[in-house]
Design goal:
The protein is of the alpha/beta class and 242 residues long. It has helices spanning 38-53, 66-75, 90-99, 107-121, 133-138, 145-158, 182-185, 237-241; strands at 6-7, 22-23, 27-32, 56-61, 85-89, 125-131, 162-168, 188-197, 203-213, 223-228, 231-234. Strand 10 and strand 11 (231-234) form a beta hairpin. Bound molecules: adenosine-5'-triphosphate and magnesium ion.
Length: 242
């Protein structure tokens, strides 16, 4: 049997439902509507892999300023500093692009070049988050989405990092991504959903579903999804029946 190396999500109980983790070297979309904890999940995967396994991660935040992101993660009890987790923003990539001989103006290529450069300088880089694809698109003129997105995804795969791309979904939107092509090119889709539970006082409940994960047997269930203490947890039928 072919043995695929996997990266743990550190979401309690999820890894055992996806053969131990996300295939190494794959490109995953983490998608959902506003506030469904896309950034928190992406960060938590890098954070726990850095702290527990010493895996080097790079978090590219193109929307939320670094101090805001850190504050939010500290509120979620993910505040330990680790030399294995680097956070960069728009300015870092802009400065790097300016000092580069190629002086690339297209942001899709800038980000790809940036990840390639970091990996060239530090071969131990394993995990990359781009938060978010929508913010990246807004920085550049995307004239041929299928082609440009293909080259971004291919560039990430060629560097052999395992990447997580945050994709924002509009309320009531069925597509998992802006152009709809991302979901076909990506190796995995993790959908975070917020659905309304009716009652005297209706409330939103969080769910997680692995919609797609190549080379992996996975359930297609929408698992109740929560943040407990310092980690995410999913609940399966087994726990809910107890
Ligand atoms: N302890 C906590 N402290 C702060 N926020 C919390 C906490 N627990 C849960 N949350 C939730 O985290 C949500 C924000 O998470 P996050 O920023 O990861 O979401 P997002 O999907 O990335 O949002 P956006 O679409 O705005 O980028 C808040 O709306 C809040 O409901
Ligand atoms: Mg976010």
């Amino acid at each position: 049997m072919v043995k695929i190396e996997r990266i743990k999500t550190y979401v309690e109980r999820l890894d055992e439902h996806i053969e131990g983790g996300i295939p190494k070297g794959s490109v995953s979309l983490i998608c959902g509507m506003p506030g469904c904890m896309k950034s928190s999940l992406a960060y938590s995967i890098l954070y726990h892999n850095a702290i527990n396994e010493g895996r080097r991660g790079l978090y590219i935040t193109l929307e939320q300023p670094i101090p805001d992101l850190k504050l939010h993660m500290a509120k979620l009890n993910m505040s330990a500093e680790s030399e294995n987790l680097t956070i960069v923003d728009y300015n870092t990539i802009e400065e790097e692009a300016k000092s580069d001989m190629r002086f690339e103006t297209n942001w899709m290529k800038r980000v790809k070049n940036y990840v390639e450069d970091v990996k060239r300088k530090d071969a131990s880089l394993e995990l990359v988050v781009i938060d978010s694809l929508n913010a990246l698109y807004s920085l550049t003129m995307v004239t041929n989405p299928r082609k440009e997105i293909y080259y971004l995804f291919k560039g990430l795969k060629d560097t052999e990092v395992t990447s997580f791309l945050v994709s924002e979904m509009e309320l009531a939107e069925k597509r998992f991504s802006r152009y709809g092509v991302e979901e076909f090119i990506a190796d995995a889709i993790i959908h975070l959903d917020l659905t309304r539970k009716e009652g005297p006082i209706p409330e939103l409940e969080r769910y997680l579903c692995v919609v797609k994960m190549r080379s992996t047997h996975h359930d297609l269930q929408y698992f109740p999804f929560m943040y407990e203490g310092d980690r995410f947890v999913i609940y399966t039928k087994k726990e809910l029946e107890l």
